[in-house]
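Session log. Operator J.P. requested a structure for one protein chain; no other inputs attached. Running the standard single-chain path with C-alpha coordinate output.
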Amino acid sequence: MTTPARSSAQPTPAASPRRKAKSDRRSQLVAAAERLFAEHGYLAVRLEDIGAAAGISGPAIYRHFPNKEALLVELLVGISTRLLAGATEVANETEDADHALAALIDFHLDFALGESDLIRIQDRDLGNLPAAAKRQVRRKQRQYVEIWVHVLRRRDPELTESDARLMAHGTFGLLNSTAHSMKPGATRTAEVSSRTVLREMTVAALTSASSVTKRRD
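Structure written below.
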Protein backbone atom coordinates (compact mmCIF):
# COMPACT_ATOMS: atom_id res chain seq x y z
CA MET A 1 0.00 0.00 0.00
CA THR A 2 1.35 3.42 -0.91
CA THR A 3 1.79 5.79 1.99
CA PRO A 4 -0.05 9.06 1.29
CA ALA A 5 2.33 11.91 0.55
CA ARG A 6 2.54 14.59 3.20
CA SER A 7 0.52 17.56 2.01
CA SER A 8 2.47 20.72 1.46
CA ALA A 9 -0.50 22.54 3.01
CA GLN A 10 0.08 20.92 6.38
CA PRO A 11 1.50 23.36 8.95
CA THR A 12 5.12 23.13 9.91
CA PRO A 13 5.93 22.60 13.59
CA ALA A 14 6.84 26.28 13.86
CA ALA A 15 3.33 27.36 12.81
CA SER A 16 1.60 25.97 15.88
CA PRO A 17 3.30 28.25 18.42
CA ARG A 18 2.52 31.23 16.18
CA ARG A 19 -1.15 30.29 16.03
CA LYS A 20 -1.22 29.82 19.78
CA ALA A 21 0.41 33.21 20.34
CA LYS A 22 -2.14 34.84 18.04
CA SER A 23 -5.00 33.09 19.83
CA ASP A 24 -3.59 34.15 23.20
CA ARG A 25 -3.37 37.80 22.12
CA ARG A 26 -6.94 37.70 20.84
CA SER A 27 -8.11 36.21 24.15
CA GLN A 28 -6.21 38.91 26.04
CA LEU A 29 -7.96 41.62 24.04
CA VAL A 30 -11.38 40.06 24.67
CA ALA A 31 -10.68 39.75 28.41
CA ALA A 32 -9.48 43.36 28.60
CA ALA A 33 -12.53 44.59 26.70
CA GLU A 34 -14.85 42.68 29.02
CA ARG A 35 -13.21 44.18 32.09
CA LEU A 36 -13.14 47.76 30.77
CA PHE A 37 -16.64 47.73 29.26
CA ALA A 38 -18.05 46.41 32.54
CA GLU A 39 -16.21 48.98 34.61
CA HIS A 40 -16.55 52.10 32.47
CA GLY A 41 -19.20 51.38 29.84
CA TYR A 42 -18.70 50.68 26.15
CA LEU A 43 -18.95 54.31 25.06
CA ALA A 44 -16.28 55.49 27.50
CA VAL A 45 -13.64 52.99 26.38
CA ARG A 46 -11.38 53.39 23.34
CA LEU A 47 -9.87 50.56 21.34
CA GLU A 48 -6.46 51.91 22.34
CA ASP A 49 -7.42 51.57 26.02
CA ILE A 50 -8.25 47.92 25.45
CA GLY A 51 -4.97 47.31 23.64
CA ALA A 52 -3.00 48.98 26.41
CA ALA A 53 -4.76 46.92 29.08
CA ALA A 54 -3.93 43.75 27.14
CA GLY A 55 -0.34 44.83 26.50
CA ILE A 56 -1.02 45.09 22.77
CA SER A 57 -0.74 48.39 20.98
CA GLY A 58 -0.66 49.98 17.56
CA PRO A 59 -1.43 48.07 14.36
CA ALA A 60 -1.28 44.73 16.22
CA ILE A 61 -4.77 45.36 17.65
CA TYR A 62 -6.29 45.56 14.17
CA ARG A 63 -4.93 42.16 13.23
CA HIS A 64 -7.49 40.71 15.63
CA PHE A 65 -10.43 43.15 15.64
CA PRO A 66 -11.20 45.90 13.12
CA ASN A 67 -12.86 48.13 15.70
CA LYS A 68 -14.25 48.35 19.21
CA GLU A 69 -17.71 47.31 18.02
CA ALA A 70 -16.33 43.94 16.90
CA LEU A 71 -15.18 43.26 20.45
CA LEU A 72 -18.65 44.01 21.82
CA VAL A 73 -20.10 41.60 19.25
CA GLU A 74 -17.57 38.95 20.27
CA LEU A 75 -18.57 39.32 23.93
CA LEU A 76 -22.36 39.46 23.68
CA VAL A 77 -22.95 37.10 20.78
CA GLY A 78 -20.38 34.78 22.33
CA ILE A 79 -22.04 34.53 25.74
CA SER A 80 -25.51 34.13 24.17
CA THR A 81 -24.19 31.28 22.05
CA ARG A 82 -22.54 29.56 25.01
CA LEU A 83 -25.64 29.93 27.19
CA LEU A 84 -27.89 28.43 24.54
CA ALA A 85 -25.54 25.53 23.84
CA GLY A 86 -25.03 24.80 27.53
CA ALA A 87 -28.72 24.93 28.40
CA THR A 88 -29.58 22.69 25.46
CA GLU A 89 -27.09 20.10 26.65
CA VAL A 90 -28.23 20.32 30.27
CA ALA A 91 -31.92 20.01 29.40
CA ASN A 92 -31.31 16.98 27.19
CA GLU A 93 -29.24 15.05 29.73
CA THR A 94 -32.25 13.64 31.57
CA GLU A 95 -35.87 12.77 30.91
CA ASP A 96 -36.76 13.64 34.51
CA ALA A 97 -38.24 17.14 34.47
CA ASP A 98 -37.37 17.87 38.12
CA HIS A 99 -33.74 16.94 37.52
CA ALA A 100 -33.66 18.96 34.31
CA LEU A 101 -35.00 22.05 36.07
CA ALA A 102 -32.52 21.67 38.93
CA ALA A 103 -29.70 21.36 36.40
CA LEU A 104 -30.89 24.46 34.53
CA ILE A 105 -30.98 26.44 37.77
CA ASP A 106 -27.44 25.37 38.61
CA PHE A 107 -26.30 26.14 35.07
CA HIS A 108 -27.72 29.66 35.20
CA LEU A 109 -26.26 30.18 38.66
CA ASP A 110 -22.84 29.32 37.24
CA PHE A 111 -23.41 32.05 34.65
CA ALA A 112 -24.78 34.63 37.08
CA LEU A 113 -21.99 34.16 39.62
CA GLY A 114 -19.18 33.60 37.14
CA GLU A 115 -19.96 36.07 34.36
CA SER A 116 -21.07 39.17 36.24
CA ASP A 117 -19.10 41.50 33.95
CA LEU A 118 -20.90 40.16 30.88
CA ILE A 119 -24.27 40.59 32.57
CA ARG A 120 -23.46 44.23 33.31
CA ILE A 121 -22.28 44.80 29.75
CA GLN A 122 -25.41 43.24 28.28
CA ASP A 123 -27.73 45.20 30.56
CA ARG A 124 -26.06 48.49 29.69
CA ASP A 125 -24.64 48.15 26.19
CA LEU A 126 -26.81 45.73 24.21
CA GLY A 127 -28.18 48.75 22.37
CA ASN A 128 -24.70 49.57 21.06
CA LEU A 129 -24.50 46.35 19.04
CA PRO A 130 -24.96 46.62 15.27
CA ALA A 131 -28.45 45.63 14.15
CA ALA A 132 -27.54 42.19 12.81
CA ALA A 133 -25.66 41.18 15.96
CA LYS A 134 -28.46 42.51 18.15
CA ARG A 135 -30.98 40.36 16.28
CA GLN A 136 -28.69 37.37 16.69
CA VAL A 137 -28.45 37.92 20.45
CA ARG A 138 -32.20 38.41 20.79
CA ARG A 139 -32.90 35.24 18.81
CA LYS A 140 -30.56 33.18 20.98
CA GLN A 141 -32.08 34.70 24.12
CA ARG A 142 -35.57 33.71 22.98
CA GLN A 143 -34.36 30.19 22.27
CA TYR A 144 -32.79 30.06 25.74
CA VAL A 145 -36.07 31.12 27.32
CA GLU A 146 -37.95 28.46 25.37
CA ILE A 147 -35.69 25.74 26.79
CA TRP A 148 -36.79 26.81 30.27
CA VAL A 149 -40.42 27.02 29.16
CA HIS A 150 -40.27 23.49 27.79
CA VAL A 151 -38.72 22.08 30.99
CA LEU A 152 -41.15 23.96 33.25
CA ARG A 153 -44.10 22.60 31.27
CA ARG A 154 -42.66 19.09 31.31
CA ARG A 155 -42.54 19.42 35.08
CA ASP A 156 -46.05 20.87 35.29
CA PRO A 157 -48.14 20.13 32.17
CA GLU A 158 -50.93 22.39 33.44
CA LEU A 159 -48.75 25.48 33.03
CA THR A 160 -49.60 27.64 30.05
CA GLU A 161 -46.78 28.78 27.79
CA SER A 162 -47.25 32.39 28.86
CA ASP A 163 -47.09 31.51 32.56
CA ALA A 164 -44.00 29.35 32.06
CA ARG A 165 -42.35 32.13 30.06
CA LEU A 166 -43.13 34.66 32.79
CA MET A 167 -41.65 32.30 35.40
CA ALA A 168 -38.50 31.88 33.33
CA HIS A 169 -38.01 35.63 32.93
CA GLY A 170 -38.61 36.12 36.65
CA THR A 171 -35.92 33.54 37.40
CA PHE A 172 -33.42 35.32 35.16
CA GLY A 173 -34.21 38.64 36.82
CA LEU A 174 -33.59 37.16 40.27
CA LEU A 175 -30.36 35.38 39.39
CA ASN A 176 -28.87 38.01 37.10
CA SER A 177 -29.34 40.71 39.74
CA THR A 178 -26.31 39.26 41.54
CA ALA A 179 -24.11 40.94 38.94
CA HIS A 180 -25.16 44.28 40.39
CA SER A 181 -25.31 43.34 44.07
CA MET A 182 -22.29 41.13 44.75
CA LYS A 183 -19.03 42.91 45.42
CA PRO A 184 -16.22 42.19 42.93
CA GLY A 185 -13.66 39.77 44.30
CA ALA A 186 -16.08 38.20 46.76
CA THR A 187 -14.60 35.37 48.81
CA ARG A 188 -15.32 31.75 48.00
CA THR A 189 -17.35 31.49 51.22
CA ALA A 190 -19.50 34.45 50.21
CA GLU A 191 -20.05 32.98 46.75
CA VAL A 192 -21.09 29.59 48.13
CA SER A 193 -23.45 31.29 50.57
CA SER A 194 -24.96 33.45 47.82
CA ARG A 195 -25.38 30.43 45.58
CA THR A 196 -27.23 28.50 48.29
CA VAL A 197 -29.57 31.39 49.07
CA LEU A 198 -30.27 32.14 45.41
CA ARG A 199 -30.91 28.52 44.59
CA GLU A 200 -33.38 28.11 47.45
CA MET A 201 -35.13 31.36 46.52
CA THR A 202 -35.40 30.28 42.89
CA VAL A 203 -36.85 26.87 43.72
CA ALA A 204 -39.29 28.45 46.19
CA ALA A 205 -40.38 31.11 43.69
CA LEU A 206 -40.96 28.62 40.88
CA THR A 207 -42.84 26.23 43.17
CA SER A 208 -44.99 29.04 44.53
CA ALA A 209 -45.73 30.42 41.07
CA SER A 210 -46.80 27.00 39.86
CA SER A 211 -49.17 26.67 42.84
CA VAL A 212 -50.64 30.12 42.17
CA THR A 213 -51.48 29.24 38.58
CA LYS A 214 -53.31 26.10 39.76
CA ARG A 215 -55.40 28.07 42.29
CA ARG A 216 -56.18 30.71 39.68
CA ASP A 217 -57.44 28.09 37.25
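Operator note: The longest helix spans residues 188-216.
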